[in-house]
Amino acid sequence: MKLRTHYIFSTGLLTFLDSVLFHEYFYYALILSGMVSVIGNSLIDRIGHKEIATRYGYIPVRTPLTHTIPRSVVWGIVSIIPVFILLLIYYYGFSYHEYYFSLSNKVLMLILLNGVVVGPSHLLLDVFTERGIYVKKYGRWKRFALAHFRYDNPLANGLAILLGVIMLLAALYLHNYHYYNYDF
C-alpha cells in the first residue's frame, strides 16, 4: 500500500484503540497516534525496502528486517522513542513541576500501546499486496500474502483509507458519548 494509506489507516486504528481504553484522552490520542503512525510507518518502509539492480532497472524489494510480525512490533516500539522524548521535553522542560504538568501513567500506556500496534497495523495492510509479508517456514523466510493487489491499486488504497477515517469517526463518537453522558 502507499505510505499515506498506512498513515491514515494506522492513525485511525491507533486512535480508535486509544479511545476505547482511554476515552478521556481523545485529543492526546489523536495527536500522539498521528505522530507514532508517521514515524513508525516511515521507519518500517524506509528500513524495510531495498532496491535491487536488474537489467531492466532498479526494483524495490521488501526485506525480512521489518516486514515480519515480531520485528514490526520491535520497530514500532523504537518509533515511540522520539514521541516520548518530545513529551518529556513538553512536560518537564518547562519550569512548572506541579501535579497538573506531570506525565501521567495513562499517557505513557497510551504511547506504549501505540508503539506495539503500529507495526502489525502496517503489516495488516501489506499482507494484501502482491509481495505480502515474511513468515518463517522450515527455518527460511517465505512470503505470505492474502490477496495480490498492487501497492498502488486505487480500490485497495481507497478502502483502507476509508476504513481509517471510519475508525477516526468512531473514536470521536466514543469520546463524545463518554464526555457528554458520564461525569468523570
Automatic annotation (TrEMBL):
Keyword Transmembrane helix attributed: yes
Q: Which UniProt keywords apply?
A: Membrane, Transmembrane, Transmembrane helix
- What single Pfam family name could you report for this chain, choosing any that match? DUF1286
Q: State the InterPro entries in the record.
A: DUF1286
* Membrane as UniProt keyword: yes
Which segments cross the bilayer?
A: 25-44, 72-92, 107-134, 155-174
Return the protein name. DUF1286 domain-containing protein
What organism does this protein naturally occur in?
Saccharolobus islandicus (strain REY15A)
